[in-house]
From TrEMBL:
<dbReference type="Pfam" id="PF02826">
    <property type="entry name" value="2-Hacid_dh_C"/>
</dbReference>
<dbReference type="Pfam" id="PF00389">
    <property type="entry name" value="2-Hacid_dh"/>
</dbReference>
<comment type="similarity">
    <text>Belongs to the D-isomer specific 2-hydroxyacid dehydrogenase family.</text>
</comment>
<dbReference type="GO" id="GO:0030267">
    <property type="term" value="F:glyoxylate reductase (NADPH) activity"/>
</dbReference>
<dbReference type="GO" id="GO:0051287">
    <property type="term" value="F:NAD binding"/>
</dbReference>
<protein>
    <submittedName>
        <fullName>Glyoxylate reductase</fullName>
        <ecNumber>1.1.1.26</ecNumber>
    </submittedName>
</protein>
<dbReference type="InterPro" id="IPR006139">
    <property type="entry name" value="D-isomer_2_OHA_DH_cat_dom"/>
</dbReference>
<keyword id="KW-0520">NAD</keyword>
<feature type="domain" description="D-isomer specific 2-hydroxyacid dehydrogenase catalytic">
    <location>
        <begin position="4"/>
        <end position="319"/>
    </location>
</feature>
<dbReference type="InterPro" id="IPR029753">
    <property type="entry name" value="D-isomer_DH_CS"/>
</dbReference>
<feature type="domain" description="D-isomer specific 2-hydroxyacid dehydrogenase NAD-binding">
    <location>
        <begin position="109"/>
        <end position="287"/>
    </location>
</feature>
<dbReference type="InterPro" id="IPR036291">
    <property type="entry name" value="NAD(P)-bd_dom_sf"/>
</dbReference>
<dbReference type="InterPro" id="IPR050223">
    <property type="entry name" value="D-isomer_2-hydroxyacid_DH"/>
</dbReference>
<dbReference type="GO" id="GO:0016618">
    <property type="term" value="F:hydroxypyruvate reductase [NAD(P)H] activity"/>
</dbReference>
<dbReference type="GO" id="GO:0047964">
    <property type="term" value="F:glyoxylate reductase (NADH) activity"/>
</dbReference>
<dbReference type="InterPro" id="IPR006140">
    <property type="entry name" value="D-isomer_DH_NAD-bd"/>
</dbReference>
<dbReference type="GO" id="GO:0005829">
    <property type="term" value="C:cytosol"/>
</dbReference>
Length: 319
């Protein structure tokens, strides 16, 4: 029996799976676990199953102790984990790729539709109880048919978003570290370009790259200025990929037409300037938030932890 510490609430099926073999200590508070409490609880853990709201750094790994073998993040993104610090200590870090790809692409496409068709504005108008009626020029948005989607980061989620956009009649360009599999590229009709060209030609730019030093403020004032004034920006990846202050100015001054954001620079805070703008859709980090997807993520994280604890290769290692 190993000690498994789970840093927040996860679906019960995953807890049961872990509990069948190990001694499981799961934080069950409705609020995120506090840092001091977390440092105290991880002491003696052989496995830590972590949520993206918890920072897994050298201090935490040391508080756990030298017996710690695995950190299993219940997320595909792992910017909350200091992976080199895990590697140095011989700790395996894992994530949950694949299982949340379709759910996150759904939210990306949802934000594209909401932003281009002004659905948030329409909803707010009705709920404000103001009078409204159908009009030839009332709340006109932009069509997607024949427009170009620029996908920044063509991993699983970028590809799944491109597939949806293609079904809406959009052409696809993408920027990625590696060339797409030619069969998939042909199926999507996707053309690889550099970021400068992508920003210039796209009517909608959707971000799907990981967050790290290389992508911090990848989209700032200069990049927004390079976009068409009729274009939209959608971010379902990580908040700090976008300079939120620059985005708020660009939206206010008409440098771009609109945006849809599922992630923010300083979650759960949202830049106050964004809250005052009509042309940005704001949703609270819901990319993977379906019952099915969260269950699959928790089960994959449990499988990752269980594999390492029994000396096997986990399904989704990071390091
Ligand atoms: C969610 O944001 C994830 O990275 O899984
Ligand atoms: C998600 O699974 C991705 O690799 O983009």
């Amino acid at each position: 029996m190993s000690r498994v510490v789970v840093t927040g609430r996860i679906p019960e099926t995953a807890i049961e799976k872990l509990r069948a073999e190990h001694d499981v200590h799961a934080w069950t508070g409705s609020e995120s676990i506090g840092r001091e409490e977390l440092l105290h609880r991880v002491a003696g853990a052989d496995a830590v199953v972590s949520l993206l709201t918890e920072r897994i750094d050298a201090e935490l790994l040391d508080a756990a102790g030298p017996q710690l073998k695995v950190v299993a993040n219940v997320a595909v993104g792992y910017d909350n984990i200091d992976v080199p610090a895990c590697t140095e200590r011989g700790i395996v870090a894992t994530n949950t790729p694949g299982v949340l790809t379709e759910a996150t692409a759904d939210i990306a496409m949802g934000l594209v539709l909401m932003a281009t068709r002004r659905l948030g504005e329409g909803e707010r108008l009705i709920r404000s109880r103001q009078a409204w009626k159908w009009g030839m020029f009332f709340l006109l948005g932009s069509s997607l048919q024949g427009k170009t989607l620029g996908v920044v980061g063509m991993g699983g989620i970028g590809q799944a978003t491109a597939r949806r956009a293609k079904a809406f009649g959009m052409d696809i360009v993408y920027q990625s570290r590696s060339e797409l599999d030619p069969v998939i590229a042909a199926e999507l009709g996707a053309r690889r370009v550099d970021l400068d060209e992508l920003l210039t030609v796209s009517d909608v730019v959707s971000l799907h790259c990981p967050y790290g030093p290389a992508t911090h403020h990848l989209i700032g004032a200069e990049q927004l200025a390079a976009m068409k004034s009729s274009a939209f920006l959608v971010n379902t990846a990580r908040g700090p990929i976008v300079d939120e202050t620059a985005l708020a100015s660009a939206l206010r001054e008409g440098v771009i037409a609109g945006a849809g954001l599922d992630v923010f620079e300083r979650e759960p805070q949202v830049h106050p300037a964004l809250l005052d703008l009509e042309n940005v859709v704001l949703v609270p980090h819901l990319g993977s938030a379906t019952v099915e997807t969260r269950t699959a993520m928790a089960m994959l994280a449990a499988d990752n932890a269980l594999a390492v604890l029994s000396g096997e290769q986990p399904p989704a290692p990071i390091n």
